[in-house]
Each structure stands twice: as structure tokens, then as C-alpha cells.
Design a protein that fits this description.
The chain has about 160 residues and is an alpha+beta fold. It has five helices and seven strands; from the N terminus they run βααβββαβαβαβ. About 30% of the residues are buried.
Length: about 160
């Protein structure tokens, strides 16, 4: 059994038992537009996309990587509980995804649409045009309440940038 010392952080794939915690974390940030609202059914349907950060037996952060095919993936639903912010948990979640992609695929492109530009730049992402991801626009953006007044920035990291 993998035992953690008190206060030790563990990043792992999400499990069915984590759905309520993931939902609650995301809900903390949907009201102010930081992330899009996700239903429990949606989280359950895409649970394989999620990873969680667990500390002292509680989920304190989550992130998903949605696969649009053609080696294009999106970092989404990245949130850390207010009590755990400033501890590098968000970076560890994104690095987990990057490391997993690097281990599993020869080539990949990982993008995000975010208000946290400097956070993603610190991880090696570069600003790109939002129109670079028509798959995202067709799938999600067209349904977003901010579609005609989007204030998010698109950033991209690819396997060629991360060697």
C-alpha cells in the first residue's frame, strides 16, 4: 500500500469516489468565470480525463486533459482549493499531465484557454491565437456565455517544446 506521510501531496488519476469532491472544487470557481460549470454526470462521463491532488486524505485540486484527437489536448477544469493555493499544487497537476503525455505519445500539443497567462508561461506554454483550435470552438466555446466577449488567452505547449 502507498502510504503518505502527513501533509504529503499525491497526484493520481481520479476515481469514481472523487466525483463529488471534483464537482465541489469546480463549483467554487464557476461563479466568477474562472472555469466552466461541470455537472456531476459530465465529470463522471469524462472521469478518465481527470487527475486529482490529494493531501491528508482530501482532494485539494483537480485538472482534466481533454483529447480532441490529432494529438491535440486541452488542460481544463484546473482548480485548487483556496486553503491549498500558493503551494505549487496547480503546477504539479499540469506537470503530471505533461509527463504522462511525454511518456505515452511521440507527439502532442497541449493548450489552454485561461485568465492565468503567467502561470502557464512559467510551465513553458506560449501565447497563440485562439483560432488555432477550431475543435475547441466548435465543441465548447460556442456554448460558453462569454463566447462573444471572451477574455481568456490561448496558450500552447507541444512535445517539440518539451524535450
Amino acid at each position: 500500500m502507498n502510504t503518505l506521510s502527513p501533509g504529503e501531496l499525491r497526484i493520481r488519476p481520479a476515481a469514481t469516489a472523487d466525483i463529488d469532491a471534483i464537482f465541489s472544487l469546480i463549483e467554487l470557481y464557476t461563479g466568477n468565470g474562472v472555469v466552466l460549470k461541470r455537472s456531476k454526470d459530465d465529470i463522471a462521463a469524462y472521469l478518465a480525463n481527470f487527475i486529482v491532488a490529494e493531501k491528508n486524505g482530501s482532494i485539494c485540486g483537480c485538472c482534466a486533459a481533454r483529447d480532441f484527437s490529432n494529438d491535440l489536448l486541452e488542460v481544463r477544469s484546473l482548480v485548487v482549493s483556496p486553503a491549498c493555493q500558493g503551494q505549487g499544487i496547480g503546477k504539479k497537476l499540469v506537470k503530471f499531465i505533461i509527463d504522462k503525455l511525454s511518456a505515452e505519445r511521440k507527439t502532442w500539443r497541449l493548450f489552454t484557454l485561461t485568465l492565468q497567462v503567467e502561470f502557464f508561461r512559467s510551465l513553458g506554454f506560449a501565447v497563440v491565437d485562439k483560432e488555432s483550435f477550431p475543435e475547441k470552438i466548435w465543441s465548447d466555446c460556442s456554448k460558453c456565455p462569454k463566447y462573444h466577449c471572451c477574455d481568456e488567452t490561448a496558450l500552447l505547449l507541444s512535445s517539440t517544446d518539451h524535450q
